[in-house]
Amino acid sequence: MSAWLDALPDAAKSYLEGRRLDEVECVISDLPGIARGKAVPASKFAKTDFFHLPDSIFYQTITGDWADAADDDGWIEKDMTLKPDMSTATAAPWTADWTLQVIHDAYDRDGDPIPYSPRNVLKRVVQLYHDKGWKPIVAPEMEFFLVSRNLDPAHEIKPMMGRSGRPAAARQAYSMTAVDEFGPVIDDIYDFAEAQGFEIDGITQEGGAGQLEINLRHGNPVKLADEVFYFKRLIREAALRHDCFATFMAKPIEDEPGSAMHIHHSVIDIETGENIFSGPQGGETDAFFHFIAGLQNHLPAGLAVMAPYVNSYRRYVKDHAAPINLEWARDNRTTGIRIPLSGPEARRVENRIAGMDCNPYLGIALSLACGYLGLIEEQRPRKQFKGNAYDGDGDIPQVMGEALDMFEEATALHEVLGPDFARVYSIVKRAEYEEFLQVISPWEREHLLMNV
């Protein structure tokens, strides 16, 4: 087993230094982004090159039901082969014993990647960039709420109590006092992240009551998606230690801002190492404008991936820190596509559409796919927007059903993401949406029961 341990990333080695590894959690992301897999003794993991799980884990809805997403062979739960990517080995520092987590990739019986495994979808899109001589770079921003324990779904979600004993206050964006209210939770987040070898670029208080944002340093899209996948679990575990919940719902609390996963993009020419969004004199290139056009032209049809639940669409509300359209502008946070202030080498495009409830692999893959299509199609974006984009008209789907309709017709996106993925994703999300339509909400009972 020692040879295997020697191959671990440095952070995992440091975590285990002087200690005996007890267990390895073999994990893979399903469509919602839930970690599936199995835990095995370290001694067994050291002797095993792979393990099996049925491919039906990708047909499972967020409620635990299974969609009928069978292929032409009919409903057959085929075994997948899951192989570890040892570069992802990292600590699980909240466990009682010494445990590592390792992300696995899914293959079929012929050794081909399972096309609807989210990590494989992202790898497919990144490879399309590489085939063109480009290296995509991303930097995700993660927003989330710390809320009081909610044990009854019939009860409204409420902000957590801070150190002062008072509920977290709203409209305190960037307040250091507000950050200090969550100090014990944040301390554990930092400690867990350090143990896992993750570099946090900063933590800030956002506009919602108990809402925080974590920024991650830019880098390889698959590596950053792995980190967001890990971070969601890390943050939840840190919150539970302090008698509260961390939620990544897009809109958990009425009249509060929603939580986004803003994605910053740049693209490097592999041969020269230069940012293709900037020219030799530092000016904006055709590729820069083509990438923006790709987002404008294709994000509406891909919104069902970035806003994957009915709750996701409650976030797109005027004047609540979420975009309602795909206008673009420089340093303007009211637009769906923002160009942050930067020098030519760091020129990037920020997609502000994605919700924090999306699967990080799929959200990043979808955003990159739209930009890739823009680079290939070489179209120009609409004129830069001036002013407050909330004053303009919305041009993104407003409900899940409409978004799914558009996604199912988006053949260009299907070809980039993978037709098999698009088929399975659409079937699973349609099943979730139809299940939601069976539920009668409190609003309907309150306003319709005796009035219509």
TrEMBL record:
<comment type="similarity">
    <text>Belongs to the glutamine synthetase family.</text>
</comment>
<dbReference type="InterPro" id="IPR027303">
    <property type="entry name" value="Gln_synth_gly_rich_site"/>
</dbReference>
<dbReference type="InterPro" id="IPR036651">
    <property type="entry name" value="Gln_synt_N_sf"/>
</dbReference>
<dbReference type="InterPro" id="IPR014746">
    <property type="entry name" value="Gln_synth/guanido_kin_cat_dom"/>
</dbReference>
<dbReference type="InterPro" id="IPR008146">
    <property type="entry name" value="Gln_synth_cat_dom"/>
</dbReference>
<dbReference type="Pfam" id="PF00120">
    <property type="entry name" value="Gln-synt_C"/>
</dbReference>
<keyword id="KW-0460">Magnesium</keyword>
<protein>
    <submittedName>
        <fullName>Glutamine synthetase family protein</fullName>
    </submittedName>
</protein>
<keyword id="KW-0436">Ligase</keyword>
<feature type="domain" description="GS catalytic">
    <location>
        <begin position="118"/>
        <end position="452"/>
    </location>
</feature>
